[in-house]
Amino acid sequence: MTSWLLAFNDLHYTYPGGRGPVLRGVTFGIPEGKKCVLLGRNGCGKSTLFLHGNGIIQPQTGQVSWRGKPFVYKRSALQEMTQRVGLVFQDPEHQLIASTVSEDISYGLCNRNLPPEVIRAKVENILDVFGMRELADVPIHHLSLGQKRRLALAGVMVLEPQLLLLDEPTAYLDRYQTKNLLRELDQIHRSGTTVLMATHDMDIAFEWAEWICVMDAGKLVFAGEPQEALSKREMLESLHLGMPLIAEVWEALPESLKQEVGGGIPRSVDELKKRLSGQLVSSR
Ligand SMILES: Nc1ncnc2c1ncn2[C@@H]1O[C@H](COP(=O)(O)OP(=O)(O)OP(=O)(O)O)[C@@H](O)[C@H]1O
Ligand SMILES: [Mg+2]
Fold it and tell me: Against a cut of 0.85, is the pTM above it?
């Protein structure tokens, strides 16, 4: 049986003064140790769900649990949850509060009453890990949007969460920074952190994820392996998410070549290249 690190059970939520329910009975679990992606069209409730993931929002009905234990909405228990679950907001302006880069990174550590020398060492280390040492004393309002997003991630990772929730982390990043970020996320995952990323980028989702969840209108409509998700073209298209580009390329190949290469839709250009070159070698 899969062990869920964080699980949402039949969550319902309507914002005060909102136009109607945003979460309408969403139920799903985040499998421990996996790189997970959450897909869903604009406004389906992804960011609202994330805010439930570390207790910032309390569900009106339903339950959120950590390793099978329901959240307790009391100050000390919630503080513990924010240590376990790191949330990187969709908009970094909502996350960054101090005046300089290093002050912002140290903010969460200061709240934990750690000795100053421990805080200093952790901040120095994370500045190196994220390649931000030269920006240490730069005022936050001098950073580009991409740099602010990077800083928001650094400020969460310095707290060493067990689960990282990333809300559309590649939005506004250029190709180079997107690749860098994905490499960093792989490193974060290898070091033992479970990651759940909300994204609209189907190419990134299918190349990167080991587990795919799809939401629509405040409910979960799919959770499973990427290969299984790729076989649900009709569902992905009906939700206006579409298919990753690689699936369209695969679709365009002659049937005879697909049969020779074998397997289902490849998840990345690299996988397609490998399979094609394997096929070419074996047919020589
Ligand atoms: N603070 C708020 N008050 C009232 N309604 C809100 C608030 N925040 C979000 N909503 C509404 O809740 C719904 C879901 O929003 P949410 O941001 O969770 O969606 P999302 O799936 O993250 O969308 P996107 O892909 O655009 O980021 C939307 O209809 C939105 O207008
Ligand atoms: Mg959102």
Answer: yes
